Model the fold of this input.
Amino acid sequence: MHEADVMLVRDAIDAGRLLAAVASAEAGANVLFLGTTRGLTDGVATRSLDYEAHEPMAMASLRRLRDEAIARFELTACAIVHRLGAVPVGQASVGLATSAPHRRAAFAAAEWLMERIKQEVPIWKCEEGADGAREWQHPGGMPATSTRAPESAS
Done:
């Protein structure tokens, strides 16, 4: 497995590169998942998401999860990319690709990985609403904090 199969990036995620990273003649299934910034969450408009990470710990966690997924689901390959910084509505903030001899393992691994990434990896997400309110979401169900943008003087 190459270290480039797990990356933190500050630019757009290249879905084609993710799929190419897991391509193999032994794979009968290739699954690509992209988690994108949605414009509306629970009735609240979102302007963008902003991600921060403890990068050395996040990379170590992502590598560990990749390796565990390969072993647990008997994958041919696995690649994970998470974006840091501002991610506008419609763009991908996380992408992963899995390949396996059969589709069931590739799909199960992708779902398992996303749940583990959200719970275990030290990457924090701040949702910025259309009104300027910002709310930090923490992995593992840690409490979120909210801040409101200063009122502009008229």
Observations:
- The chain has one domain: 3-147.
- Strands lie at 6-9, 29-36, 40-41, 44-53, 77-83, 85-88, 92-100, 123-129, 134-137, 145-147.
